[in-house]
Please model this.
Amino acid sequence: MNDASFYLPDYRIKTPAMRCPEYVQMSTAAAITLGLVPGRMYRTDCTHCLNLLLTYPEGCRANCAYCGLARHREEARDYADRNFIRVDWPALRYPEVIARIRAGGDKGRFQRMCISMISHPDSNRDTLALLQSWVEALPHIPVSILSNPTTMERDDLLRLRQAGAEIFTVALDAVTPEIFERTRGRTVDSPHRWDKYWQSIEWAAEIFGPEKFGAHLICGMGETEREFLSVVQRIRDSGGHSHLFAFFPEHGSLMEDWPACGKAQWRRVQLARFLIDHAGGDLRDMKFDDAGRVVDFGVAQGELESLIQSGSPFRTSGCPGNEAEEVSACNRPYGDSRPADILSFPFELNPGDIEIVQLQMKGEAAETAFE
Model:
């Protein structure tokens, strides 16, 4: 299905020939939004962020335990045929992507573009090339960089900022040194190092400035809620934001048998993260039980209830678009859950959704009504 000939019959290029910067991969949601593949998304008609992924026949050189792109997945002969974050990522010539958007193929829906790097010797060079081409052709759509700190030095961040990148994020994912080492470091024969990732976050704070940097964090890989939110607060104290993902086991990954993130844990973390990042909350005012679970969010009950009823804390967190800062352009439809059991809502919640969320926060079983 991911063969470029399926999407672009004129090219007939097989996946081993697909290489950045001529080719990029994009999320299925982005491909649907651009009309490249048939389909529709439950309760939303598009994604507002064009998520692009660097691609090389050799693939990613890292071996993260939870990732669909991990080096150990040798059963996928063509790297571009591997899935990532639960969905296919079809490949397309990058000039064709730009041409389609300039011609209005997205119907004005994209409010942001994001370049997702992978661990490859050419990723720094090619990310810069993709960015420069985009800014020249589509300067009205801002660009975020989802970085690979392992291959980067401070000057790389500076070059990206000077070339027009607006926001720089780091896929930290694991929130403790121990979990990072177990899932991304030497334990799984992967090159990533905890200290280098935090160094890149510090460089981003300096070079991109407040509100223009952040980190991706995955909830449910063995950490406590207190440990998770301590990282959220650390990033916020530096001027950045956290973008949350609920752990959902990727088929074929080393963690394919690890349980998905618990719903009660996820909802509490979402709410606390929103308080810290967007509503003036502070970890130091929150209270936790002996298992590290949030038992007091540190704000008045009326304020907390109003926030829950708004539904905003439970929407997908990511880089902003044209709407309010706390509403993400990067809504990543169903990137961490099924439509029948939504964890990150890619749209505004209705009263029924909020009722389900409240039940989940209490640890009661509830699933989205799937139509």
About this structure: The domain at 4-259 is CATH 3.20.20.70 (TIM Barrel). Strands lie at 23-26, 49-53, 91-93, 112-116, 143-147, 167-173, 213-219, 241-246, 287-288, 294-296. Residues 1-13 have pLDDT under 50 and may be disordered. The radius of gyration is 20 Å.
